[in-house]
Amino acid sequence: LCESLLMLSYLYLVFAQLTVSYNIVSSKFLIAASISPFIILQLRFIFASIVIAMIAMSVEGYHSPKNLLLWPSQFKLNFIIQALCAGLFFNLFLLAGLEHTSAGSAGIITSFLPSMIVVFSILFLKESLNFQKSLSLTLATFGLILVNAKSFLSSQETHHFWGDLLVFLSLIPE
After folding, report:
1. How many CB atoms lie within 10 A of CB 118?
2. Which letter does DSSP use for residue 79 in this model?
3. Cα–Cα distance between 60 and 14 in angstroms, integer?
Protein backbone atom coordinates (compact mmCIF):
# COMPACT_ATOMS: atom_id res chain seq x y z
CA LEU A 1 0.00 0.00 0.00
CA CYS A 2 2.81 2.41 0.88
CA GLU A 3 4.61 1.80 -2.42
CA SER A 4 1.41 2.31 -4.41
CA LEU A 5 0.81 5.65 -2.65
CA LEU A 6 4.37 6.68 -3.39
CA MET A 7 3.93 5.76 -7.05
CA LEU A 8 0.63 7.65 -7.17
CA SER A 9 2.38 10.69 -5.68
CA TYR A 10 5.04 10.53 -8.38
CA LEU A 11 2.37 10.26 -11.05
CA TYR A 12 0.63 13.34 -9.65
CA LEU A 13 3.93 15.24 -9.76
CA VAL A 14 4.52 14.19 -13.37
CA PHE A 15 0.97 15.23 -14.28
CA ALA A 16 1.44 18.61 -12.56
CA GLN A 17 4.71 19.24 -14.41
CA LEU A 18 3.17 18.24 -17.74
CA THR A 19 0.26 20.59 -17.08
CA VAL A 20 2.62 23.49 -16.33
CA SER A 21 4.71 22.70 -19.42
CA TYR A 22 1.61 22.53 -21.61
CA ASN A 23 0.45 25.83 -20.13
CA ILE A 24 3.69 27.60 -21.05
CA VAL A 25 3.92 26.19 -24.58
CA SER A 26 0.27 26.78 -25.40
CA SER A 27 0.41 30.32 -23.99
CA LYS A 28 3.47 31.10 -26.12
CA PHE A 29 1.68 29.70 -29.18
CA LEU A 30 -1.36 31.89 -28.52
CA ILE A 31 0.77 34.99 -27.89
CA ALA A 32 2.68 34.33 -31.12
CA ALA A 33 -0.71 34.25 -32.87
CA SER A 34 -1.24 37.86 -31.64
CA ILE A 35 -3.80 37.00 -28.98
CA SER A 36 -3.66 39.41 -26.05
CA PRO A 37 -2.33 38.02 -22.76
CA PHE A 38 -5.42 39.46 -21.06
CA ILE A 39 -7.73 37.46 -23.36
CA ILE A 40 -5.67 34.33 -22.66
CA LEU A 41 -5.94 35.00 -18.94
CA GLN A 42 -9.71 35.53 -19.10
CA LEU A 43 -10.25 32.33 -21.07
CA ARG A 44 -8.01 30.38 -18.70
CA PHE A 45 -9.92 31.60 -15.63
CA ILE A 46 -13.31 30.94 -17.20
CA PHE A 47 -12.31 27.39 -18.17
CA ALA A 48 -10.71 26.71 -14.76
CA SER A 49 -13.78 28.07 -12.94
CA ILE A 50 -16.08 25.75 -14.87
CA VAL A 51 -13.87 22.71 -14.22
CA ILE A 52 -13.45 23.50 -10.52
CA ALA A 53 -17.19 24.11 -10.09
CA MET A 54 -17.98 20.75 -11.74
CA ILE A 55 -15.48 18.96 -9.50
CA ALA A 56 -16.77 20.72 -6.38
CA MET A 57 -20.40 19.86 -7.16
CA SER A 58 -19.50 16.22 -7.73
CA VAL A 59 -17.94 15.88 -4.27
CA GLU A 60 -20.18 14.41 -1.62
CA GLY A 61 -21.13 17.01 0.96
CA TYR A 62 -20.80 19.91 -1.48
CA HIS A 63 -21.83 23.20 0.06
CA SER A 64 -22.96 26.12 -2.03
CA PRO A 65 -20.81 29.26 -2.37
CA LYS A 66 -23.11 31.11 0.05
CA ASN A 67 -21.20 29.34 2.83
CA LEU A 68 -18.14 31.37 1.85
CA LEU A 69 -19.78 34.34 3.55
CA LEU A 70 -19.56 32.45 6.84
CA TRP A 71 -15.77 32.12 6.64
CA PRO A 72 -13.75 34.08 9.23
CA SER A 73 -12.43 37.43 7.94
CA GLN A 74 -8.75 36.41 8.19
CA PHE A 75 -9.44 33.28 6.13
CA LYS A 76 -11.20 35.35 3.46
CA LEU A 77 -8.27 37.79 3.34
CA ASN A 78 -5.74 34.95 2.99
CA PHE A 79 -7.87 33.38 0.26
CA ILE A 80 -8.04 36.66 -1.69
CA ILE A 81 -4.28 37.28 -1.36
CA GLN A 82 -3.50 33.76 -2.56
CA ALA A 83 -5.87 34.14 -5.50
CA LEU A 84 -4.32 37.45 -6.52
CA CYS A 85 -0.74 36.23 -6.18
CA ALA A 86 -0.88 32.72 -7.63
CA GLY A 87 -3.82 33.30 -9.93
CA LEU A 88 -3.44 36.80 -11.27
CA PHE A 89 0.06 38.18 -10.75
CA PHE A 90 1.90 34.96 -11.60
CA ASN A 91 -0.02 34.62 -14.86
CA LEU A 92 0.31 38.30 -15.79
CA PHE A 93 4.08 38.27 -15.36
CA LEU A 94 4.39 34.91 -17.11
CA LEU A 95 2.30 35.94 -20.12
CA ALA A 96 4.04 39.32 -20.37
CA GLY A 97 7.39 37.53 -20.27
CA LEU A 98 6.30 35.04 -22.93
CA GLU A 99 5.74 37.97 -25.29
CA HIS A 100 9.51 38.59 -25.17
CA THR A 101 11.14 35.21 -24.64
CA SER A 102 10.88 31.62 -25.82
CA ALA A 103 8.74 28.93 -24.24
CA GLY A 104 11.90 26.88 -23.64
CA SER A 105 13.55 29.66 -21.67
CA ALA A 106 10.35 30.25 -19.71
CA GLY A 107 10.12 26.55 -18.88
CA ILE A 108 13.68 26.46 -17.63
CA ILE A 109 13.22 29.60 -15.56
CA THR A 110 9.97 28.39 -13.99
CA SER A 111 11.75 25.20 -12.95
CA PHE A 112 13.64 27.48 -10.52
CA LEU A 113 10.42 27.71 -8.43
CA PRO A 114 11.42 25.03 -5.86
CA SER A 115 14.57 27.02 -5.13
CA MET A 116 12.52 30.18 -4.68
CA ILE A 117 10.31 28.31 -2.22
CA VAL A 118 13.39 27.31 -0.21
CA VAL A 119 14.67 30.90 -0.17
CA PHE A 120 11.31 32.32 0.95
CA SER A 121 10.95 29.56 3.56
CA ILE A 122 14.32 30.53 5.00
CA LEU A 123 13.53 34.27 4.91
CA PHE A 124 9.93 34.30 6.09
CA LEU A 125 9.37 31.01 7.91
CA LYS A 126 12.82 30.98 9.55
CA GLU A 127 13.63 27.48 8.32
CA SER A 128 17.23 26.37 8.67
CA LEU A 129 19.63 26.24 5.75
CA ASN A 130 21.45 22.91 5.73
CA PHE A 131 24.09 21.57 3.32
CA GLN A 132 21.58 19.86 1.04
CA LYS A 133 19.49 23.03 0.64
CA SER A 134 22.63 25.13 0.07
CA LEU A 135 23.88 22.75 -2.59
CA SER A 136 20.49 22.64 -4.31
CA LEU A 137 20.22 26.44 -4.34
CA THR A 138 23.75 26.79 -5.70
CA LEU A 139 23.21 24.26 -8.48
CA ALA A 140 19.83 25.73 -9.47
CA THR A 141 21.22 29.28 -9.54
CA PHE A 142 24.28 28.21 -11.52
CA GLY A 143 22.07 26.33 -13.99
CA LEU A 144 19.79 29.34 -14.46
CA ILE A 145 22.77 31.63 -15.08
CA LEU A 146 24.36 29.11 -17.45
CA VAL A 147 21.19 28.72 -19.51
CA ASN A 148 20.73 32.48 -19.78
CA ALA A 149 24.41 33.43 -20.14
CA LYS A 150 23.93 34.31 -23.80
CA SER A 151 21.20 36.81 -22.93
CA PHE A 152 23.29 38.38 -20.19
CA LEU A 153 26.40 38.73 -22.37
CA SER A 154 24.81 39.90 -25.62
CA SER A 155 23.54 43.46 -25.92
CA GLN A 156 21.43 42.36 -28.90
CA GLU A 157 19.37 40.04 -26.70
CA THR A 158 17.83 42.72 -24.42
CA HIS A 159 14.36 41.82 -25.70
CA HIS A 160 14.95 38.20 -24.62
CA PHE A 161 16.50 39.32 -21.31
CA TRP A 162 13.44 41.37 -20.31
CA GLY A 163 11.17 38.44 -21.13
CA ASP A 164 13.32 36.15 -18.98
CA LEU A 165 13.26 38.71 -16.17
CA LEU A 166 9.45 38.96 -16.29
CA VAL A 167 9.14 35.16 -16.20
CA PHE A 168 11.54 35.06 -13.25
CA LEU A 169 9.51 37.76 -11.47
CA SER A 170 6.38 35.62 -11.97
CA LEU A 171 7.91 33.13 -9.52
CA ILE A 172 7.73 35.58 -6.63
CA PRO A 173 3.93 35.73 -6.34
CA GLU A 174 3.63 32.06 -7.23
Report:
1. 17
2. H
3. 27
Q: Look at residue 87 and give its three-state secondary structure.
A: helix
Report the half-sphere exposure of 76 (CA within 13 A, side-chain side): 8
Mean pLDDT in consecutive groups of 10 residues from the start of the chain, 174 residues = 82 84 86 88 86 76 64 78 85 90 83 83 87 85 75 60 89 87
Exposure string over 127-145, b if 16+ CB within 10 A, otherwise e: eeeeeebeeebeebeeebe
The predicted model scores a pTM of: 0.71
Distance CA 27, CA 51 (A): 19
Task: Identify residue 78 by its one-letter amino acid code.
Answer: N
- Are the C-beta atoms of residues 96 and 90 closer than 8 Å to each other? no
Whether the CB-CB separation of 15 and 69 falls below 8 Å is answered with no
User: What is the distance between the alpha carbons of residues 141 and 108, in angstroms, rounded to a whole number?
Assistant: 11
pLDDT of residue 83: 82
Q: Which of 48, 30, 17 is CA-nearest to residue 110?
A: 17
